[in-house]
Amino acid sequence: MKLTFWGAAQTVTGSMHQLDADGRRYLLDCGMYQGHRKQAEDRNRHFPFPPRSVGAVILSHAHIDHSGNLPLLVKNGFSGPIYGTPATIDLAHAMLLDAAHIQEKDVEFLNKRHHHGEPPIAPLFSIEDAEHTLPLFQPVPYYEPKQLSAGLTCRYYDAGHILGSATVMFESDSRLLFSGDVGRPNMPIIRNPDPPPATDYLIMESTYGGRFHEEMGSVKDKLADIVRRTAGRGGKLIVPAFAVGRSQQLVLLLHELSNEGRVPKIPMFLDSPLAVDITTVFRNHPECFNEETLRYVNAGDDPFGFKLLTLVHEAAESKKLNDLHVPCVIISPSGMCEAGRILHHLRNNIEDPRNTILITGFQAENTLGRKLVEKWPEVKIFGEPMRVRAEVKSLQALSAHADQRELLAWMKPLVGTVKKVFLVHGEFDGATALQAAIQKEYGVETVLPGWGQSFELS
């Protein structure tokens, strides 16, 4: 087996790793790179290998930074199977169509603002390209072996990151485990990560490799306090949130706080066609739920809906929220503030000091979300400079990524069999901190592969 790292190598986004085994080529994820627009455009549009040479894609989960470049891969000639768990496939169907729609709409908006004579911008891929991708998906349930070739099998384990997320074991002459994104124990909605099976080599994420999360127990208290304070000054709480996982977590927590009478009875909106559709997918996959969420279901209650919450699907209804001058909560993707309706909500609310912007997940370098977390006094939205006068708060304990302590605990069962660990999906400082911790704690060789770097697995 030979591994080559193309995406999420010493960076967080654009997960894509090439595995050559048993005479065939496979991709582990095919994610969209996010960051500086020109760099992202180049990375996403140009594959470092012929897409036709790829025999199959093995998808760890549906987040766009892991699946979002699949339509462009297909557009450029890939026609093989795309494997994922049943929940991952249902999520990816909705997410890829939505990503194509957002790209088309954002490009249309930007082209209207172009100066005369400038060439028009084209989307990475169209809705038609996404539609051509969907028939290639093939479901692989957890724990069932999938024969990829005569000499190579893979098997999915629950990664506990988002609905349907998986850690993937590849077995040939050697064993290779791809962590995907590792979740955290005792999180809302989904089950805990499975213990990893014994392996010779490990590809492991390192998003929070240099950080430690606050305890989950304080999350509801902090969220309740932020809602109360923002409403008390007559403001809006604007929450950029990933459509998959984070939006549903927030809805469930607000549901619980409302039932407990800990937040004022103000209107709350989940404003995203994708998040609304994804919530339906969640309802259709209770096999992924933890015991707490199953209790809602078994009692006949909807964990993802309550009377204060309005699900906003149509663009016209979203625009009406700009004219709403009462305290409210608006949850809207994208989680890193790089596309979609959240940009319009930020544009309309970021300069009002009564409002709060609540960041609830990791923000990659050079994204608008990262600039807000870093308290930039001025940011550009749709190319226009805007003063950040709204309060910016962060609630990182909801992160679906394991921190350093949790990653070390997750990989502990592998100590004694694993020969080498490849750290991916992390910025350099976080990955090097985790590298040092692994080598100190377990004495296992740990490397940070660079873009295009290859390794032979014997």
Give a quick summary of the entry.
It contains 14 helices and 22 strands. With 458 residues, it is an alpha/beta fold.
Topology:
Blueprint: E1 2-7, E2 16-21, E3 24-28, H1 37-45, E4 56-58, H2 64-67, H3 70-75, E5 82-84, H4 86-112, H5 127-133, E6 137-139, E7 146-149, E8 152-158, E9 166-171, E10 175-178, E11 201-205, H6 219-232, E12 236-240, H7 246-259, E13 268-271, H8 273-283, H9 291-298, E14 309-312, H10 315-320, E15 328-332, H11 341-349, E16 356-359, H12 368-373, E17 378-381, E18 384-387, E19 391-394, H13 404-411, E20 420-424, H14 428-442, E21 445-447, E22 454-456
Parallel strand pairs: 3-4, 4-5, 5-6, 10-11, 11-20, 12-15, 12-16, 13-14, 13-15, 16-19, 20-21
Antiparallel strand pairs: 1-2, 1-22, 2-3, 7-8, 8-9, 9-10, 17-18
Helix pairs in contact: 4-5, 4-8
- Rg over CA atoms: 21 Å
Q: Please give the CATH class of the largest domain.
A: Alpha Beta
Span between N and C termini?
7 Å
Q: Figure out the total of helices.
A: 14
Broad shape: globular
Summing up helix and strand content along with how strands pair, one would put the structural category as alpha/beta
Query: Which sequence of strands runs across the widest sheet?
Result: 6-5-4-3-2-1-22
> What is the third-level CATH name, the topology of the largest domain?
Metallo-beta-lactamase, Chain A
Fraction of residues in helix: 25-40%
Describe the sheet with the most strands. Answer: 7 strands, mixed
Mean pLDDT: 93
Low-confidence stretches: none
CATH architecture annotation of the largest domain? 4-Layer Sandwich
Query: What share of residues are in beta strands?
Result: 15-25%
Classify the oligomer: single chain
Quickly count the domains: 2
Strand segment tally: 22
